[in-house]
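Predict both folds.
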Amino acid sequence: MEDPVIVLSRQELDTLLSTLIERDEKLLFKKDLKPTKNDVPVDLYVFSGHLEALRSEELDGMLMEAIEDLGYEAKDEDEAWEIVKAFYLPRKCTLMRVEEDEYIIGDELARRLGLLKEAP
């Protein structure tokens, strides 16, 4: 069975991000909280800090550094991304595609954000 892939348009991702705040290094839905002065609005940059890895035209995912941290080497970013996916996807993570960009998001976070169904 093939691993699930979350597919969102840029607009869908932007809409999701607009419903979130970061508080105490956690992503939370605004509607569930009273605002505080420590709340951080969530944009793509803030969101990226909660991802396991990413390959994006807009953000530098530092792929070559990421695979070195994992103890691997790659000749280019294409190979590096394949290595990163092979490492994370079997480890309770899911691939999320937003137009040409790809992100690896932890399954628990994806479920909390309503991007994955609850595990049976």
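Second protein follows, with its predicted structure tokens after the sequence.
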Amino acid sequence: MTMTFVEDFYQEKKAYFSSLTTDELISKFNREVGNTGWTGSRGIYLAALNDEISERKIKGTDLIIKGGRMSILKKVKFVNNQLFAL
């Protein structure tokens, strides 16, 4: 079975995010805060980012993910395996 562009792009980004340290992952998240531009590719990128953050056991994830959906309204910092609002 061949993958569609969307599936392939999601898998590529998910693999990339899974290779990052949590500090690097949160840095990627913070880069998205305040960006109001939107494309389908960005939606897929954010979905992969959301899924990777959700899979890690990070305290305070509820600051940025509620009901499985990620909010990119506020930056966070990562200290001692916990997220804090900035």
